[in-house]
Amino acid sequence: MASQVPPQIFSRRRRIAGLRRARVRQAKRDAARYILDDMVEDVLDRLEFIRMSPTRVLVIGDWTGTLALSLRGGGSDVTEHDVATLDEEHPVESESYDLIVSLCSLDRVNDLPGALLHLRNALAEGGMMIASFLGAGSLVNLRRAMLAAEPDRPAARMHPLVDNQAASALMQRALFKRQVVDSRTLTASFGSLDRLVSDLRDQGLGSALANPPPALDKAAKARAGAAFLDTASDQGRVLEIFEILTLTGWKN
């Protein structure tokens, strides 16, 4: 039986373009990077808690370089990649990593089960994978604003996101042992929809849909902006939630 080709929801070319744009935008003094910073801190906390000192590490997606720098300080041999240099939907060349960390990346691959299996195969026996990305509870106000922008026929403008239950099933399917999926939330306040979109672009989290719809016209943008502010506080700020899913699994 021929294997099924996964639907092409995301464009790797657009992901690479978004990453390059984010790196340019990071030159701004007030560029946002709080999501990746939180993920890096969380990974380091987990490694300290389990007292893991990996020898060979693969880090995917941390364009800040902070995680690799910290791990090298502890004596690890770290290889760094991003979407431009490593396609997670294909086998990883080496198969002997003690630790693989993927940040803000696996939620935008077309074949997530296959990508997880490739990462597991790249681990040495007893190795561990940690993958963090935005989960299904994220960006509630942005989704509401996009629906309000085109009330008659809303276009698919936002990424489909994975929830805890689906992530757990995918980890089992990829044959990880002792797999754990947990989530936490970050909350940030915004004075406008434009500021939220700017923060997402700063962090390489803009749209990477393979077939993006046409840009919103002026009237639709106005409706979206007004809808976004519907839940604003007395100070004119909207609280937006970023749910971070973290998938942890071992190969043994």
TrEMBL record:
GO biological process: methylation
Highest taxon, organism lineage: Bacteria
InterPro entries: Malonyl-ACP_OMT, SAM-dependent_MTases_sf
PANTHER family named among the record's database cross-references: ARGININE-HYDROXYLASE NDUFAF5, MITOCHONDRIAL
Keywords on record: Methyltransferase, Transferase
A GO MF term: methyltransferase activity
Protein name: Methyltransferase
Keyword DNA-binding annotated: no
Keyword Isomerase appears in the UniProt entry: no
Species this chain originates from: Erythrobacter aureus
